[in-house]
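We were asked to recover a plausible sequence for a given structure. The inputs and outputs are reproduced exactly as logged, with field labels preserved.

PROBLEM: sequence recovery
POSITIONS: 234
GIVEN STRUCTURE:
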C-alpha cells in the first residue's frame, strides 16, 4: 500500500466488538427492566389465584423463543418476512444484527437483574443479612439503569468513521463531518484500551486565537500511531 494513501476506518456495532457489547448491554438493560416490571405485575396478580407457575412458564417460554430466534440460522428469512409487512428503508441486514444484539442483551440482563432480585428476596425472607436485608441486591439491580445509560453513551462516543490523509496532514471525520488539520496541533497523546485508541489533541493558539476542533477522538490503533507520529515529526 502506498504510504500516502488515505487510511480509512469505521468503528460501529458491525466492526467493533466493544461498541457492539456496550450497545447490546445498554439497550438490553432498558428492555429487561420493562419486561421485569410487567412480569412482576402479572406475577402478583396471578399469585392471588394460584397461577404463579403459569406466568413463570410463559416468561421462560418467551425468553427461550427469543433466544432461539436470535441464534437460529433461519432468523434472516423470518426477519425478512416480517420486514416485508412493514415498509422501511433501513438496511435489513443491519436491522437483523441489531435485533439479535438487543434480544441477547435483554435476555442476559433479565437473568442478571432477576437473579439479584430473587437473591434479595431470599435473603430478606431468611434474615440472612440481618438489618441490611435485601438492600445490597436491590441496590445493584437499581444501579443497572444508570450503568446502561453510561454504556449507551460510551457506545456512541466510541463510534468513529473517517479517514486520515498523510499528504494533506488532515483527519476527516464523518457523522458529523469534521476535518482536523494536524498543522494546528502542537501535541498529541494516545491511550490504548483494548482495541480502542483514544487520541488527545493539544491545539496551538496562534496569536492567542482559540482553534475550534475536537480535543479527543477515537481511532483504530494503527491510525492513532500514524497521527501521533505525524504530529511529533512536525
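RECOVERED SEQUENCE:
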Amino acid at each position: 500500500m502506498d504510504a500516502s494513501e488515505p487510511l480509512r476506518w469505521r468503528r460501529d456495532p458491525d466492526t467493533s466488538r466493544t461498541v457492539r457489547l456496550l450497545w447490546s448491554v445498554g439497550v438490553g438493560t432498558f428492555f429487561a427492566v420493562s419486561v421485569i416490571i410487567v412480569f412482576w405485575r402479572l406475577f402478583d396478580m396471578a399469585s392471588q389465584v394460584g397461577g404463579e407457575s403459569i406466568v413463570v412458564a410463559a416468561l421462560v417460554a418467551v425468553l427461550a423463543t427469543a433466544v432461539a430466534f436470535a441464534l437460529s440460522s433461519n432468523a434472516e428469512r423470518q426477519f425478512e418476512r416480517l420486514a416485508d409487512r412493514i415498509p422501511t428503508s433501513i438496511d435489513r441486514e443491519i436491522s437483523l444484527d441489531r435485533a439479535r444484539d438487543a434480544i441477547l442483551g435483554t435476555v442476559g440482563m433479565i437473568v442478571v437483574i432477576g437473579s439479584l432480585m430473587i437473591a434479595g428476596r431470599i435473603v430478606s425472607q431468611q434474615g440472612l443479612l440481618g438489618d441490611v436485608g435485601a438492600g445490597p441486591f436491590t441496590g445493584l439491580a437499581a444501579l443497572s439503569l444508570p450503568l446502561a445509560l453510561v454504556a449507551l453513551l460510551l457506545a456512541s462516543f466510541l463510534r468513529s468513521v473517517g479517514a486520515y490523509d498523510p499528504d494533506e496532514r488532515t483527519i476527516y471525520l464523518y457523522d458529523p463531518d469534521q476535518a482536523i488539520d494536524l498543522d494546528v496541533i502542537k501535541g498529541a497523546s494516545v491511550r490504548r484500551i483494548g482495541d480502542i485508541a483514544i487520541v488527545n489533541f493539544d491545539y496551538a493558539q496562534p496569536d492567542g486565537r482559540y482553534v475550534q476542533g475536537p480535543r479527543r477522538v477515537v481511532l483504530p490503533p494503527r491510525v492513532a500511531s500514524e497521527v501521533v507520529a505525524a504530529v511529533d515529526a512536525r
